Amino acid sequence: EAGVTQFPSHSVIEKGQTVTLRCDPISGHDNLYWYRRVMGKEIKFLLHFVKESKQDESGMPNNRFLAERTGGTYSTLKVQPAELEDSGVYFCASSMNTEAFFGQGTRLTVV
Amino acid sequence: SQQGEEDPQALSIQEGENATMNCSYKTSINNLQWYRQNSGRGLVHLILIRSNEREKHSGRLRVTLDTSKKSSSLLITASRAADTASYFCATDGFNDMRFGAGTRLTVKP
Fold first, then answer.
1. How many Å lie between the alpha carbon of A92 and the closest alpha carbon of chain B?
2. In the predicted model, what is the mean pLDDT of residues B71-95?
3. For residue B62, which of A23, B40, B75, B82 is within the disulfide window of CB 3.0 to 4.6 Å?
4. Alpha-carbon B26 to chain mean position
5. Nearest CA of chain B to the CA of A43: how many Å?
6. Is the sign of the CA dihedral B70, B51, A36, B77 positive or negative?
7. Interatomic CA distance for residues B91 and B87, integer angstroms
8. Which H or E run includes A13?
9. pLDDT in tens, A11-69
10. How far apart are CA B45 and CA B20, in angstroms?
11. Residue by residue, what is the 3-state secondary structure of chain B?
């Protein structure tokens, strides 16, 4: 069974540009989470989808971040325009019940 | 806000020694999970302990949970250089996980 897949694995963009991160959860998992880890600090929750609905987006830092989950399948996280402080590793996870499965993350570098 | 809080923030030991990391949380949970992150890589799920369990073992890992103190500990026995990583606890309250800041473990060969 395929795990959680994130794309790209690494992205380097200039300040002011737009980047879209994608997450493909494990098939059948209703819950999808986005997290990020900035500068080796703690892993921070961004938001939680249940199917296509945003259950909790309290962790989204500002309106430059937009997450969608089309048809309750894959999800995208768009950062527009990117700022230097957005650099970090963005993790996606999916779960059916209590155990979450994480992707390998997308390392975003904003220069 | 963050839920889990790990301590110590950093731990350095010699290969073969045991490593103990602690995690505290604030609200009621259904279960608590420990994860490892190797530098630059994704999170790896290590072990899950449910709120009605007190102790759980998996290979060289031993996890305890004290719901009265809202704390958990992760013990890695006979550590290896490959155990060098950051370790996080995550609490799962109502299917909504929160992570702590992590403990950076360095195992010296």
1. 9
2. 87
3. B75
4. 16
5. 6
6. positive
7. 13
8. strand A10-13
9. 999 999 999 999 999 999 999 999 998 876 778 889 999 999 998 898 899 999 999 99
10. 17
11. CCCCEEECCEEEEECCCCEEEEEECCCCCCEEEEEEECCCCCEEEEEEEECCCCEEEECCEEEEEECCCCEEEEEECCCCHHHCEEEEEEEEECCEEEECCCEEEEEEC
Tell me: pLDDT of B2 over 60.
Answer: no
Q: Which residues of A96-105 are buried (b: 16+ CB within 10 A; e: fewer)?
A: eeeebbbbbb
Q: Which two tokens stand for residue A77?
A: 């996280």
Nearest to B35 by CA among A91, A16, A80: A91
- CA angle centred on A32, ends A27 and A38, rounded to 5°: 130
Residues in B closer than 8 angstroms to A97, CB to CB, are: 95
Q: Is B29 left (phi over 0), alpha (psi -120 to 50) or beta?
A: beta
Nearest CA in chain A to B95: A98
Q: Which of B40, B52, B98 is nearest to A104 (CA)?
A: B40
